[in-house]
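Continuing from the previous page...

OK, I double-checked the sequence for DUF3088 domain-containing protein against my notes and this is the correct one:
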Amino acid sequence: MLPATGFENPALEDDLGRGWFCPPCAMVEGFLAAFPHVREQLEVAYVPFPRPRRPVVDLVGEAHQGLPLLILAEPAEGEGIETAGGLTFISDEKAILRYLGRRYGAAQPLP
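Thanks. Re-ran it with the corrected sequence; updated structure tokens here:
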């Protein structure tokens, strides 16, 4: 899951009229753009940026509504993998990229 406003509508403005974006989410978007064969294997959902992020809260609870968020199709164990609400997920952007790279045969991020 990624924030809708950061990528579909970067209209979030500060008092100077500049937009905002989520750097960790941009890192995941860049990875998916660089490796389209990975993106094709995923169902990417864009959720509203403001909290509470109801679609995320409904799945993994209020404590885990940070973005980006990769919900795994099956239970797993490993670096950065957590469970809540009966789902297994990763919320750290570098752990997400390492998982996706290993799972789908794409490059790994530098340590």
